[in-house]
Amino acid sequence: MIETGGEALPGGRELSVRVPGDKSITQRALILGALAEGESRIGGVLRGEDPLATGRALAGLGVEIRGLEGSPESDLRIRGRGLRGWRQPDGVLDLENSGTGARLLAGALAAQPLTAVLTGDESLTSRPMERIVGPLRRMGAAIDCLGVPGRLPMRVTGGPLVPLCHRGTVASAQVKSAVLLAGVGAGVAVEVCEPRRSRDHSELMLEAMGVSVVAGAVEGGWSVGVPAPPTRLAPLDMEVPGDFSSAAFLLAWAVLSGCRGALTVRGVGLNGTRTGLLPVLARMGIGVDVAQRGTAGGEPVGDLRVAAPMGPPRAVEVGGAEIPAMIDEVPVLAILAARAEGVTRITGARELRVKESDRLTALALNLRRIGVAVEELPDGLEIEGTRGRLAGAAECFGDHRIAMCFGVLGATPGCDIRVDDPGVADVSFPGFWKLLARLPHRSASDRRGRTAYTRRDAARGDAAANPEAGCLVVAIDGSAGSGKSTTAAAVAFRLGFRHLDSGAVYRAVTLGLIERGTADAVLEEVTPEELAALEIDVKWGEGRMEVWLDGNRIPERDLRSERVTARVSQVSAIPAVRSGLLDLQRSARAGAGLVAEGRDMGSVVFPDAKVKVHLDADPRERARRRILQRGERSPGPAEIEAEADRLRRRDERDSSRRVAPLRRAPDAVVIDTTGLEPDEQIDRIVRLVEKARRVSR
Ligand code: DC
């Protein structure tokens, strides 16, 4: 995505980049295209995890979408089924992490003559849905929350609706869009009044599809309505502009990296309900030139150019009416504030507590961890800027914007920041880490000043930066539900080591065999040639193990899918599979160290590992953890007993199987995790590693 550039930006050099398509607009294009009559063409879409989840849900409703998983350049084609033409879905519609997808779909479903169940991942199922459930029920939709009231999963039974004038207490584009979609779908008048104006992508796109939208200031806020919905929506034909929120991370990088040239982000959406950060940056002394180049789907599009400032940014006060138009950029503002002169005060941003994470707490916690003085307010933050060294580990809480803002800060001088879950950036900015790595980086003196061996070094296998000679192997084995994977990942993160999840490698082979059509009955007879023909590879992305099959990275959800889980234990018992994977697993050794997690790490794969740990726990405790891990809440004694029985049977099968029975290495340290908090398990293993290091010195 870098168009020009070089090693550094010596005086006057220009660097030009592009960012992926706007997430909000991509999501709306998908849903609106699905309601149109005829085929919509959408170019420049964001192929991030949120739109993919929305696309899959729409496919479940009978909407044909082509090109969503295609190359970044290809167009998306959506064959709309008309305003009330969606099909009764066969299963639950899982929106994963996408709040926009879930809320807007709920609105559109309210008018469809069908019943659908919407759900999401752990984070989405804890976010508030009451704010859309209320107005949609008042319009006549039947909505049942199947778990916790006001949360997903929920069942929506749609049908004819009545007109509604809704007064919202928070400015929320998702609530507004849900009501507008319900009204347009059912052909009834709707109006939404908000205390402040929220982003208006839905209105602009509806207008582009032939809907007459009335909007304007009213007493106590802003009103948007569709008084006379049309009987059909014309298909869309548009290019999605680059995401301003993604561009904001790069602007912040340019400011904080102190590079001497200028950075231009091209083709960015400049909708005024989204660009509220720009006047705030101006108050901080950061000038951004805006050049509008045209429009797309009713949205202004142009280039943003920031020249690196002469000095550090100035602290600002931000709050009230300014917040809705920059709500997603508060994390970016927070990292700028961390380097600004003075104390920045952000208020009126309570809404950030119910985003992909509680962003106020996530920002405060992480900033504090790396050495910034922060005060967390009920609706904001007070951040005292510092020029001191910032170092430590940032926790992402599954939130893409938290991951990216600390990634950006970490890529600037005077910082050494590790991000625990970089992969979450894929939600809105696929390719973010690659782009960041290609930007001109910190100076050599800054690298020399580092105190710690970082996770990024570990991921790269950067032996030169490794203060240890050789790669220290930590083998963590144990039975199912003993807490292995969480512990291993955390230990690797704490130590800056690679984490080998050997179970994932067995899962990849299983997926490969299933995809090659190897029937269950003949799995055991699979030949070494058939196995060799599977191109399984393990790569090290930004601190994370990635498993590749036939040249493509396997998405997590495929690795952990039902069909793979059901067969992996059978596949992992095939002798040819076990021996065939030895070299691949051993090749994971690089950099400072490796935490290898599985069933035979200490006994077979790395018999000379410096640290060997065998985790165990009481079957009932393991059962309880597994049930909770599946997202079910507080299991009762009978449920725990049934799961414990299954685990006991599996333990017995695993330890009595002919090939690679689960047996602990004689020199492994056994840790019974039954009464231990996760932190205690991690601490114990880290202490073992530190001891091993001392001995080997
Ligand atoms: O840890 P997991 O559930 O992802 O492991 C998947 C399967 O692979 C499980 O059935 C155990 C098996 N496995 C194995 O036999 N040896 C390993 N080193 C890792 C996993």
The tally of helices reads 25
Strand coverage percent? 15-25%
List of distinct ligands in this structure? 2'-deoxycytidine-5'-monophosphate
Shape: globular
Question: How would the blueprint of this fold be written?
Answer:
Elements: E1 2-4, E2 14-18, H1 23-35, E3 37-43, H2 49-60, E4 64-66, E5 76-81, E6 93-94, H3 99-109, E7 115-119, H4 130-139, E8 142-145, E9 154-157, E10 164-167, H5 173-186, E11 190-194, H6 201-208, E12 214-218, E13 221-226, E14 237-239, H7 244-257, E15 262-269, H8 277-283, E16 288-296, E17 299-307, E18 317-318, H9 330-338, E19 343-346, H10 359-370, E20 373-377, E21 380-384, E22 390-394, H11 400-410, E23 415-419, H12 432-438, H13 444-448, H14 455-460, E24 472-478, H15 484-495, E25 498-501, H16 502-515, H17 528-533, E26 536-540, E27 545-549, E28 552-553, H18 556-559, H19 562-571, H20 575-580, H21 582-586, E29 593-598, H22 601-605, E30 611-616, H23 619-629, H24 637-656, E31 669-672, H25 678-696
Parallel strand pairs: 2-15, 3-14, 6-7, 10-11, 18-19, 22-23, 24-29, 24-30, 25-29, 30-31
Antiparallel strand pairs: 1-2, 3-5, 4-5, 7-9, 8-9, 11-13, 12-13, 15-17, 16-17, 19-21, 20-21, 26-27, 27-28
Helix pairs in contact: 1-2, 1-3, 1-6, 2-3, 3-5, 4-5, 7-9, 7-11, 9-11, 15-25, 16-19, 23-24
Bound molecules: 2'-deoxycytidine-5'-monophosphate.
